[in-house]
Design a protein that fits this description.
With 237 residues, the protein is mainly β. 6% of the residues lie in helices and 51% in strands.
Amino acid sequence: MRNVSCLALLLSLALVPACGGGGGAPVPGPVLPLAFNPANFAGGPIDNPFFPLPVGTTFTHAGTTDDGEVETTNEVTTDVKVILGVTCVVVHALETHDGELVEDTLDWFAQDVFGNVWYLGEDSKDIENGVVVSTEGSWEAGVAGAQAGIIMLASPGVGQVYHQEFAVGIAEDMARIVGLGGTQTTPLDVFTGCLATEEFTPLEPGVLSGKHYAAGVGLVVDVNADGSRLELVSVTP
C-alpha cells in the first residue's frame, strides 16, 4: 500500500521551507495529513463543487501576460487512464501565446469517495514552431517515486496547506487556501462565493501565484506570479 510512503512524504514536507505572502515569508499551518489509498476510489465522476470535470466540457481561459495574448483550453475527454489501480479522468490542456501553440498536456485526475480530487500526474510537452522541444514537468504517480497530490479538497477551509503534486525536483507545487466567499469578475460572468488559493513550490522559493474557484464552475481566475490574470471566457458545451 501507498500509505507508508505518503506518511514519509508528509513528515519530510514539514521540514520544507514553504513560501507565503510578504515576499517569501513562511506559510503558516502544517501540511494536511492526507494519504493516498487506491481503496478509497470508486471510479465515479468528478463533481467536487469547486473542481467539477463533466465529461465533454471544455474550459477556456484567456488574458494578457508577459508572454503576450495567452489562451488555455482544458477539455475533459472521454478517455481514462488507470494509475496505481485508480481510474483517472484525462483532461487535454492546450496553451497558446499570440495564437501559437506552446504547450500540449494530458492531466490525470480522480475523485475519492470523500470528495477530494487528486492529481495523479501529467504528460506535458513544450512546443516551439510546431516541434516538441521538452517534456520537462511530466510525471506519474507511482513512477520514480512520484506521489499523487490534492488538487481540491472535499471540505476546504482557510489556512489549510496541501501538496498538489510530488515528483522530487520535477513537480512540487503546493497550495494554501487564503479565502472563501470572494467575488471574481471575468468576461463570462460575475462569480460569487469563490475559493482563493495561494500557490508556491520549494523549487522556486519566493515565487507566488494564485487561483480563484467558483462553486459549480471550477477555476475562474488564474493569477500569475507577475500579477497578470487568465480569466474564464467560455465553458462549452
